[in-house]
TrEMBL record:
Protein name: laccase
Family under the similarity heading: Belongs to the multicopper oxidase family.
Highest rank taxon of the organism: Eukaryota
Catalysis: reaction(s): 4 hydroquinone + O2 = 4 benzosemiquinone + 2 H2O
Any single biological process term in GO: lignin catabolic process
Cofactor entry: Cu cation
Assigned EC number: 1.10.3.2
One GO MF term: hydroquinone:oxygen oxidoreductase activity
Domain Plastocyanin-like: 35-180
Pfam families named among the record's database cross-references: Cu-oxidase (PF00394)
Amino acid sequence: GTRWYHSHFSAQYGDGLHRRINGPATADYDVDLGTYTVQDWYYLTAYQAAARAQAFSISAPPPSGDNILVNGTNKKGSTGEYNKVNIKTDKKYRLRLVNPSIDIAVRVSLDGHPFTVIANDFVPVEPYETNYVLIGIGQRYDVIFTANQTADNYWFRADPHNPCVSFNGGAGRAIFSYDNVTVADPTSSANSDAPTTCEDPSPKPKIAKNVPKDTFRIQAQDLPIAFDNQTVNTNNESIVLWTINGTSMMIDPAEPTLEYMAKGKSDYPRSYNLIEISDSAAWTYWVIQQAVGAPNLP
């Protein structure tokens, strides 16, 4: 599998750098093409986009992204360029697909070349084949494809998945070209069987660690997630805030959570949004379910 790390300060990760952490695979391949990001891109800075999204007075969804980048690049009108990947006949290639977007789920495919999924996030899974991979924000899929088609140029597609309420007018594209073929815009056709719902697949872990259902249900607790408009006292503007367990997280940088622990203090402010667990040596599972009709979780 593959993990990625990024900034966790405010909306900064939307403008920042991303790096990968390697994990194991469950099928053989010849070439690791490395991390391959598919993401929305704003001509606003992440902070400008976040400010508009939080402005309750606008009464509109978050601003739509201006483009979708594939491995950091794409065309927009007559400017920009496509990412280009050279492949050799009969070789098996591993792609570590990552979606570091701000606001969209991305539907990914490579014309004429089905994917064999070998990992979902950092979990090695029993390999399964699919024409499309739907990647939510922050998700990772490791896939393998075989270069076994007619030597030509093929579109790699990364499109906003509208059933997941993904607002973006862009169309992410890259060009995968066979060896000894002149690189040009492909004429290939999109794969069939594109997903029509906003659902994750249910892959089977290569090494299963099952939790007994009865025990899980007995211990399950509600953790409500909602959104609300709040009045900020400094300038009396109404803004939209997401809440977990009834409050938005607001940390005082002068007194971070770890400092409370270091000083042996336990009087955490409610806005720190700490959730206590009973046993530090036990796994704790979170099942997050969104109410029908509510805005998509950020």
